What does this fold into?
Amino acid sequence: MSKPDIIKILMADDHSIVRSGLVALIHSEPDMIVVAQASDGTQAAELYAKYRPDVAMLDLRMPGKSGNDAIDQIRQTYSKAHILVLTAYSGDEDIHKALEAGALGYALKSSTSDDLISAIRAVAAGQRWIPRDVASLLAVRNAYDALSHREIEVLKDRKSVG
It folds into this structure.
């Protein structure tokens, strides 16, 4: 029986207590290891280049370079980088920008441990991971993208009247 491949993970979050908890969770899985930790987007991009992890798990809002800026920088050099956003922010624009920047997955910090581990495995395999509630927000935003500028104005006017 061969040993399973170990999923190497870069963890980037500006809150050390969050990183510590996530590292403990990940290290409880026999096929995962955190190879590097970053506290901002600049450091995340540098550590990605140094360690070339299977998955980069990035928060969106960090000091200095944001998660989205780090995604952009990483993907400029490593176009096939597997990036999972893990954030507390569930706004449709945050989701859209992260996916547009090249993230394969988007998970909320309110996710269960099982869901987060599943998200890491999916992204490591090159699959998209977007939870149903996040996908719903994105679908609503994309519906507005399909509308003309005038149609959006009319909807806004009706909303303010009603």
Remarks:
- The chain has seven helices and five strands.
- The helical segments are 16-27, 41-51, 67-77, 92-101, 113-124, 132-146, 149-161.
- The radius of gyration is 17 Å.
- Residues 132-146 form the longest helix (15 residues).
